[in-house]
């Protein structure tokens, strides 16, 4: 392992990541309002096994214990998200000081344990009250988001120096408004481009506000995939081009070039009445870093029945995770080099990377060799990227804890720490122990 440790720069940020609705629970406590995920998860048939985030990992009550566990493992960076309805139960107007106090205490606890916070403002839990006003279809939501962001910057900005506006706006747009498998559960392709634009506008407004008041770094996190054609046939090359526009450049282009990819017009035609003068300049403001969530590449073949005119192909010899996703670490290197040359130079942080596997508790331990191997392969791929000139500054394992996996409920486990949901016992998996050893070796080598 030592040879791998040597391949990363001294100040590389290693961490773990979580999201508010997936771990916190306490959905009705201390003045928190309802989110769209509360409503969606309580709608029969929406979540596997009828699971909800009502309790989840009970992190709201076990925060200090969880932070202490991070510290014991030698984790020095933690990415978490803030629950908007904890701060503004109605999405705007009267703020809830008890909600702010929780994140204030979490921040202090992290710093006390020498763990640097990386804060995500939006990880999908929109206040339900705003959804009832149209949610992200309504342009006003972008401005409510700015006001919420300013409130959080004001409360935590003296101690938090690294911020992410949005996590995976593609998922909010597509899974939430086209496929209907995520909250708010809409199947309205005709609104998708408006939703995406308002999400990006809210990002731009938050960045602008932070520049006026903050001294740290701010970026956005996108879920991205290298897209490979299944063959060299012309139709598969077209599928590759369209799929790349639908999954990657739809959000990369406006953030970095102030335009939307033309190929998107073939997938989701639109009139641009919702784009006001100055919007794209606001969206395109310089960022301090780009957050990248990477899990797997996409290999595609032409399929006119799919919205992006492409179907995913899994090769027979490819190993897959329990999500059915191919394991291909080289895809991470390919993706990062592409971002660097097409949109860079921009500092990159891997804000999520990890794998779900079927975990079995044996004598109080979880021997998750496949997850450990997955992580180690991706660290190697990351080192390859850095050696080829990509300025990668950090890496966060998804996830610190097993948690509520959205529409799949508690059926999939991504954590390096196992959670027994009946007792809330935490058990560090072998992958977590391996990560801990790797981190200690890294810090020892670099004498950080």
UniProtKB/TrEMBL annotation:
The active site is at residues 168, 352. Keywords: Carbohydrate metabolism, Cellulose degradation, Glycosidase, Hydrolase, Polysaccharide degradation. Gene3D superfamilies: Glycosidases (3.20.20.80). It catalyses: Hydrolysis of terminal, non-reducing beta-D-glucosyl residues with release of beta-D-glucose. Its EC number is 3.2.1.21. GO terms for biological process: cellulose catabolic process. The keyword GTP-binding does not apply. GO terms for molecular function: beta-glucosidase activity. GO terms for cellular component: cytosol. Substrate binds at residues 22, 123, 167, 295, 398, 405-406. It comes from the Bacteria. NCBIfam families: BGL. This is Beta-glucosidase. It comes from Sulfobacillus thermosulfidooxidans (strain DSM 9293 / VKM B-1269 / AT-1).
């Amino acid at each position: 392992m030592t040879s791998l440790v040597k391949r990363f720069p001294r100040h590389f940020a290693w961490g773990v990541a979580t999201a508010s609705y997936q771990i916190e629970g306490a959905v009705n406590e201390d003045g928190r309002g309802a989110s769209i995920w509360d409503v969606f998860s309580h709608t029969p048939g929406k979540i596997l096994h009828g699971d909800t985030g009502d309790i989840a990992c009970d992190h709201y009550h076990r925060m200090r214990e969880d932070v202490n566990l991070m510290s014991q493992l030698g984790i020095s960076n933690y990415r978490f998200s803030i629950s908007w309805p904890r701060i503004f139960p109605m999405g705007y107007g009267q703020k809830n000081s008890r909600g702010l106090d929780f994140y204030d205490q979490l921040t202090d606890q992290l710093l006390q344990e020498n763990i640097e916070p990386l804060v995500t403002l939006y990880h999908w839990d929109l206040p339900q009250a705003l959804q009832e006003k149209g949610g992200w279809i309504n342009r006003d939501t972008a401005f409510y988001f700015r006001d919420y962001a300013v409130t959080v910057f004001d409360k935590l900005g003296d101690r938090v120096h690294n911020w992410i506006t949005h996590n995976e706006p593609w998922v909010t747009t597509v899974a939430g408004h086209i496929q209907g498998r995520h909250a708010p559960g809409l199947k309205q392709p005709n609104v998708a481009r408006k939703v995406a634009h308002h999400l990006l506008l809210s990002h731009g407004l938050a960045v602008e506000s932070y520049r006026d008041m903050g001294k740290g770094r701010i970026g956005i996190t996108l879920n991205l995939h290298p897209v490979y054609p299944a063959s060299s046939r012309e139709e598969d090359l077209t599928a590759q081009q369209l799929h790349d526009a639908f999954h990657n450049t739809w959000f990369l282009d406006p953030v970095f070039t102030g335009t939307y990819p033309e190929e998107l017009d073939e997938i989701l035609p639109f009139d641009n009445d919702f784009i006001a003068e100055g919007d794209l300049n606001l969206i395109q403001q310089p960022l301090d870093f780009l957050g990248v969530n990477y899990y797997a590449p996409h290999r595609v073949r032409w399929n006119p029945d799919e919205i992006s005119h492409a179907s995913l192909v899994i090769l027979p010899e490819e190993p897959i995770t329990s999500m059915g996703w191919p394991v291909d670490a080289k895809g991470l290197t390919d993706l990062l080099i592409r971002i660097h040359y097409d949109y860079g130079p921009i500092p990159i942080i891997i804000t999520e990377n990890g794998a779900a596997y079927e975990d079995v508790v044996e004598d109080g331990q979880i021997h998750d060799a496949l997850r450990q191997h997955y992580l180690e392969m991706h660290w190697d791929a990351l080192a390859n990227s850095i050696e080829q000139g990509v300025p990668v500054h950090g890496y966060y394992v998804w996830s610190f804890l097993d948690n509520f996996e959205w529409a799949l409920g508690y059926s999939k486990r991504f954590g390096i720490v196992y959670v027994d949901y009946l007792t809330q016992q935490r058990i560090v998996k072998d992958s977590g122990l391996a990560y801990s050893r790797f981190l200690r070796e890294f810090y020892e080598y670099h004498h950080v």
